């Protein structure tokens, strides 16, 4: 998602609540993620029954992890 956090927080496609971000995937569904420091994150995709966890030690080259993780969760089974 272009613009990262600020675009998501002010967007009809997402929200932030209780330290979790909601990421609207279609009309009726949301994925959820929590972001830590140095690219540590948890991504949850209920419709695919998937949980993706990333452990990070330093900042890397990926600008917006949730977009990539949504693509991974949406990939064919």
From TrEMBL:
Domain of life: Bacteria
InterPro entries assigned to the protein according to its UniProt record, in alphabetical order: Beta-lactam/transpept-like
Protein name: Beta-lactamase
Organism: Chitinophaga niastensis
């Amino acid at each position: 998602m272009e613009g990262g956090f600020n675009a998501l927080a002010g967007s009809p496609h997402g929200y932030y609540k209780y330290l979790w971000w909601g990421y609207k995937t279609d009309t009726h569904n949301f994925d959820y993620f929590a972001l830590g420091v140095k690219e540590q994150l948890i991504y949850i995709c209920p419709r695919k029954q998937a949980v993706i966890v990333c452990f990070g030690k330093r900042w890397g080259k990926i600008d917006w992890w949730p977009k990539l993780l949504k693509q991974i969760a949406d990939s064919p089974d």
